[in-house]
Amino acid sequence: DVKVTQSSRYLVKRTGEKVFLECVQDMDHENMFWYRQDPGLGLRLIYFSYDVKMKEKGDIPEGYSVSREKKERFSLILESASTNQTSMYLCASRSGLNGYTFGSGTRLTVV
Amino acid sequence: AQSVTQLDSQVPVFEEAPVELRCNYSSSVSVYLFWYVQYPNQGLQLLLKYLSGSTLVKGINGFEAEFNKSQTSFHLRKPSVHISDTAEYFCAVSETDSWGKLQFGAGTQVVVTP
């Protein structure tokens, strides 16, 4: 079975901290994505990557950056965490015309 | 740019009754369409997808959806629900030339009661 693994299930960070969310896939997929999920808003795309070292902004990139140094790993970085970044973060990967494979999510609370 | 509207935020339904979840989209180009399910405290799981061909698509767990291009809709149906179908359901659209970016609807919470 294909897997997308997010390193933390729950995370609590302080305002102003630099936060790293890690995502690893074992399927050799080219495309990887970071979404945030908020009640009533569905999932919104933060950033995506279509190849190693390649990245594109999604719909809500402000306050975030990403890194993809290896094909299997896609990291989301909160440069200076703020309380409005408290959310569920979902990583996904995709190859070809198939739907995404999602990780289980990281619930981040910024206090 | 595409957008997705899920017309119901919550759908209560009795066990063994049918359910329909409505999804409308807008896009100026060809699209692929998806339905995902999210059980409590889990990631999203693909229920079914429409890429091309037959407009009636069958998925896992007895779900099916029909693509209607003229009405730009992709409604999800199940003829008889179980308690275990209690979950949040997301409709999603991907434009065919968009690197696979998905635009999600806001979600529909299905609550099945005995």
Describe the structure.
Chain A is globular and about 40 Å long. The model of chain A has no long low-confidence stretch (mean pLDDT 93). In chain A, 0% of the residues lie in helices and 57% in strands. Chain A is mainly β and 111 residues long. In chain A, the strands form three sheets. In chain A, strands 2, 5, 6, 7, 10, 11 and 12 form a seven-stranded mixed sheet that branches. In chain A, β10 (87-94) and β11 form a beta hairpin. Chain A has strands spanning 4-6, 10-13, 19-21, 23-25, 31-38, 42-51, 54-57, 64-70, 73-78, 87-94, 101-102, 106-110. With 114 residues, chain B is an all-beta fold. Chain B has strands at 3-6, 10-14, 19-21, 23-26, 31-38, 44-50, 56-58, 64-68, 73-78, 87-95, 103-104, 108-113. In chain B, strands 2, 5, 6, 10, 11 and 12 form a six-stranded mixed sheet that branches. In chain B, a hairpin with a 4-residue loop joins β8 and β9 (73-78). The radius of gyration of chain B is 14 Å and the shape is globular. The mean pLDDT of chain B is 92.
